[in-house]
Design goal:
The chain has 317 residues and is mainly α. It contains 14 helices and no strands. The longest helix has 45 residues.
Length: 317
């Protein structure tokens, strides 16, 4: 099969997670039905297969780059989220009380921000939509970079998302957190008007999962387990940095991310420090993604140079 080095690396990471997930599920006796995998695995494999077709037989590297990255990211998201769930329950207490105290030092309060946005229903609705479209924003960035044949920034961004996700899961595994919404309970009237997507009720459910775990994956109805660091911040920032050289897309995503920041705090139910940690992880993961891509390219160039040199020697002989 025809894969670029970063594509092959992400595929290897997916394979490693499949092995680890299988071991954890058997060891902990957690049931995982085919329904959990059906849509994500089918979609991911379909995109990868399309990428192979367009790379090998249709000679369209633009489509191949785009479909490969989207498919591999879907597959990684599936095995990564399963790994996250299989780490339940957590033996250590959530650190949200400490994070809330840090927020207070920074002058931030989730209930106060929600009370403020309750006075602006239209803005609140806009922020809700922006928060729900964060993954779409990331995929748009992937499509743009694929269509522009910017393999360096596309693959660096895809690998950055994978590395940031792994870092986030490991951080949560050691220091579980459900976010500000898990710690605070909003006043009923504020909750009715704002309707946070990650509400106090959802946060309470996360705390129960942290303590009790789940006997079967199919019984789990959550959109995310991690409060600290904020992965929505990672998705928004990596997509912005990835398209940064392209002015039109940079300006568009600057506007979107200006709205996404408060949306993450309000509708993601996050602490401010969750977002700050997300920014830090995004920067480190992006730099790591670029470094790995460049290292692979240098190795390929050196290998090609050695091959050309050997061909020259053979021709002279």
């Amino acid at each position: 099969m025809a894969f670029h080095p970063i594509e092959r690396l992400i595929l290897m990471i997916v394979g490693a997670f499949i092995v680890v997930d299988g071991f954890l599920a058997l060891w902990k006796g957690i049931g995982v039905s085919a329904n959990f995998f059906l849509f994500s695995a089918g979609s991911g494999l379909l995109f990868v297969a399309l990428g192979q077709i367009y790379r090998r037989w249709r000679d369209s590297e633009r489509i191949a780059l785009t479909t490969h990255v989207i498919g591999l990211f879907i597959l990684f998201s599936m095995v990564g989220s399963l790994f996250n769930v299989l780490l339940l329950p957590r033996p250590t207490a959530p650190i949200d009380a400490m994070l809330v105290r840090i927020d207070a030092w920074l002058g931030y309060s989730w209930p106060a921000l929600c009370a403020w946005i309750a006075g602006y229903p239209f803005l609140n609705s806009v922020l809700r939509i922006v928060y729900q479209l964060t993954l779409v924003q990331l995929f748009v960035a992937f499509v743009v970079l694929g269509m522009l044949l910017d393999r360096r920034r596309l693959h660096a961004g895809a690998l950055a998302m994978v590395l940031a996700a792994i870092a986030g899961i490991l951080c949560w595994a050691m220091f579980p957190s459900g976010g500000a919404s898990a710690y605070w309970t909003l006043a009923p009237e504020i909750d009715r008007v704002v309707r946070p997507i990650v509400s106090s009720e959802y946060g309470a459910m996360l705390y129960r999962l942290y303590e009790e775990g789940v006997p079967h994956i199919d019984s789990l109805q959550v959109t995310g387990l991690i409060g600290f660091p904020s992965f929505h911040t990672v998705m928004g920032l990596v997509s912005l940095v990835a398209v940064w050289p392209y002015r039109v897309f940079r300006l568009a995503l600057l506007v979107v991310n200006a709205l996404l920041a408060p949306a993450i705090l309000i509708h993601g139910g996050h602490n401010l420090v969750d977002v700050i940690a997300g920014v830090f992880i995004s920067i480190v993961a992006w730099r790591a993604g670029l470094a790995v891509f460049d290292a692979y390219e240098r190795a390929s160039s050196q290998q090609a140079g050695v091959f050309t040199h050997q061909q020259g020697q053979a021709a002279r002989a």
